[in-house]
Amino acid sequence: MRWIQDRRHVWLHPVLPLVALALVGAIDGLLAWRAWPIVVHGALDESAHLLTALVLLAALLPARLRHLLPWALLGIVAIDVDHLPLYFWGVGAAAGSGRPVTHSLLTIAVLLGGAALLRRLRAPLAGLAVGVALHLVRDLATGPGVPLLWPLSDTAVTAPYAGYLGVLAIGTAAAVVRRRRAALSA
Ligand SMILES: [Zn+2]
């Protein structure tokens, strides 16, 4: 029960990535099973985005950058606000992709550029960039893909869903090993 007492590391506990991995599989099973109302679909998809991020952050985020975590979690969900102009007015999508042009490396570059230039906003902007990057990991393997290289290219870049699950499985294993090491060295 020491992990419960050690609240600073609670999000790194190995059980959480394992549960997250299982939940992502279950959510995607539900999404593939039938067409859901858009609000339900959105809630399920955003939940899977957050679970994906939980696994990958537990595996990869250095302890010294833990202060970026709230901003990263915000960025993971907030990037999908860019779908609203697309839904309401049919604007914002690249010609070759069903997702908005802001679902691209350019958004990450702009956020990182802002973080480099604006010292006081460094943590929020860097955290949001991490969140957007993690968001794109899932979007690459679901739906129509993302216009990753916009404005250089309108083409939707996609990745196989099995690859996404593989990344999550490796992330889960890495998070478990990382937590185990942290527990042993504590
Ligand atoms: Zn998205």
Automatic annotation (TrEMBL):
Keywords attached to this entry: Membrane, Transmembrane, Transmembrane helix
Pfam families linked to this entry: YdjM
Protein origin, superkingdom: Bacteria
Transmembrane segments: 12-33, 39-61, 68-89, 101-118, 125-141, 161-177
Protein name: Inner membrane protein
Organism: Blastococcus tunisiensis
